[in-house]
Amino acid sequence: xxxxxxxxxxxxxxxxxxxxxxxxxxxxxxxxxxxxxxxxxxxxxxxxxxxxxxxxxxxxxxxxxxxxxxxxxxxxxxxxxxxxxxxxxxxxxxxxxxxxxxxxxxxxxxxxxxxxxxxxxxxxxxxxxxxxxxxxxxxxxxxxxxxxxxxxxxxxxxxxxxxxxxxxxxxxxxxxxxxxxxxxxxxxxxxxxxxxxxxxxxxxxxxxxxxxxxxxxxxxxxxxxxxxxxxxxxxxxxxxxxxxxxxxxxxxxxxxxxxxxxxxxxxxxxxxxxxxxxxxxxxxxxxxxxxxxxxxxx
Length: 298
Description:
Ubiquitin-like (UB roll), 3 domains, 3-stranded mixed beta sheet
């Protein structure tokens, strides 16, 4: 599926607050002008989908706001059918009528002709390329049982569960490639690329010394231990009372990978380092190739 575009709004810190507010409002209005809100949605051309399912699909999109992009809207409609097990659904034609071209976002009426294809049901899930975790462990991350409707959203949820499971075992760059089912008895084949297993290096904290010491004492991942990617979130939640009210994981945490040594350093920023600005902070590194030195699991 094509990547959905996003816009990044940058506001100069040198502008007065009133100018910043006005600029932000102007850019928000411009972004809204590139969006549509679906006021009504009618689907035709289907043969096997019952009226209740069609109502669920149309209601899921009616009243919602989307990018003003016909191709993206077609993809969203197809994904709704895939969530109901029609994995081969194809939008044959999409008619978009703008009700008020001057509004932001623009209200539209949509009519789609859809060929839903066969209803797919899961026959099996097979895994290849997995070594650190067994196929039984990975299969348990999927709620779908044999014979269940092959729902795209539930498959995506299982893949996300796999990502968390691998992350908890130190595999920070694992990827999973599912095959698209070819018939109504859908057998899902998932190719697993585990990547390197990372270990904990060190925890560094920028902030009040007394708080940093308490957090250091409570951190349980010792150097050399397999890095549990799920531990950080748990640690922050458990020790939220020690963190600044404005602290967020996205702005206050940086992970620094050593790709050659397969280690990770965790950096927490509880206060601005007077010697270093935000741009000097270590960034999350996406190692483009597996580290040279791979360490075995415990």
